Amino acid sequence: MENKQHVILVRYGEIALKGLNRHTFIDLLVKNIRGALSHLESAQVEKIQGRIIVHIDDNELDQGIDAVSRVFGVVSLSPATVLPSTMESIEAAVVEEADLKPFDSFKICVKRSDKRFPMTSPEIARHLGGVVLKHYDGQGKKVKMKGADREIWVEVRESAYVYSEFIKGRGGLPVGCSGKAALLLSGGIDSPVAGYMMAKRGVKLEAVYFHSFPFTSERAKEKVIDLGRILTRYTGHFDLHVVPFTDIQTKIVEVCPERQTTIIIRRFMMRIAEEIAKKKGCLSLITGESLGQVASQTQESLAATGGVVNMEVLRPLIGMDKQEIVEIAQDIGTFETSILPYEDCCTIFVPKHPETHPNRKKIAQGETKMMDNAEEMIQKAVEQTETIHL
């Protein structure tokens, strides 16, 4: 067959419903796909009516499919053969596609977007069905409209596309269409999943990690960097801000009531994260909190920690149980790294009997001894924050 090429045919779903803003969303999706394919020399991304086409050499096709399937906004994709929009070319491509795998029954599905083509979609399907039956003459192949072993798809546009495989994408919205937010990223299972879920709704991430060296080791920091790098497979590149938290954390443990230390530590994390978020143009904070999972995640505790910031706090895992969160972590590839046994600052200095139903007024009283120079400590931590581009 002459003039044929292999491409990746990309479909988008939710953004097709965005009315007058649809093209803005599609352009952002194209940009994100280009970013995901930037490591492949041959990849070229083209926007056509209703589809995005990735032109790519055959030797990079599998890598391209893997990268595009992780881009939020992509509903599904298909490796396809693109060829001149003539019946002779399409017949040859359909037969070649049919020969790829054994089958007993088949169905030809046709979409004709180019109305200049001289046959309707049903006419094209019937004609191509006859071509396939003739090709397998005497072998007992049957056309089956429901439950066929193989479905071969033909899209007739300015060019023709022939394919038979559908690969599921991640869905959601293109990263960047819903603004930016700061993710409080620890080394645990939950926060990477929270970041993944908000990125799926189009949020561009900045990440904030609290490092309490030497109580938390350099290996714990490397673990969080590794988790961030795994997230970039879905979110694109983002910055990880590593906050030196040792002085503040040890001071809290020294002067505040022991039962309240976990809540007060989290209140200072939120204050620092808000300062960084403002500097980076973020609209919200993201946490991996799940209601009732631990003492610091009761309704009263969440109110006490979130109440110290003026920024919206997004908690995408709030109604999920641990198994649901673990399953997502396993799916996106963060789980095995998250369970590595390096402590983070949330797991050190944990009181024997933490406050589970804190009164916000009493918590404020409990952190009184921290507040004389709280602003100074927070600004110092922000100024000494290390930023790592992932």
Instruction: Name the beta content range.
Output: 15-25%
- The tally of beta strands, per DSSP, is 15
Taking the alpha carbons of the first and last residues, their distance comes to: 44 Å
Mean pLDDT over the residues: 93
Order of helices and strands: EHEEHEHEHEEEEEHEHEHHEHEHHHHHE
Number of helices: 14
Q: Please summarize the sheet with the most strands.
A: 9 strands, mixed
Backbone shape: elongated
> Which structural class fits the helix and strand makeup?
alpha/beta
Ranges with pLDDT <50 over ≥5 residues?
A: none
Radius of gyration, Cα only, in angstroms?
A: 27 Å
**Can you give the helix content as a percent range?**
25-40%
Descriptive report:
By secondary structure, the chain is an alpha/beta fold. The protein is built from 14 helices and 15 strands. The strands form two sheets. Strands 1, 2, 3, 4, 5, 6, 7, 8 and 9 form a nine-stranded mixed β-sheet that branches. β7 and β8 form a beta hairpin. α5 runs parallel beside α6 and α8 crosses α9. The longest helix is centred in the C-terminal third of the chain and has 19 residues. The two termini are 44 Å apart. The mean pLDDT is 93.
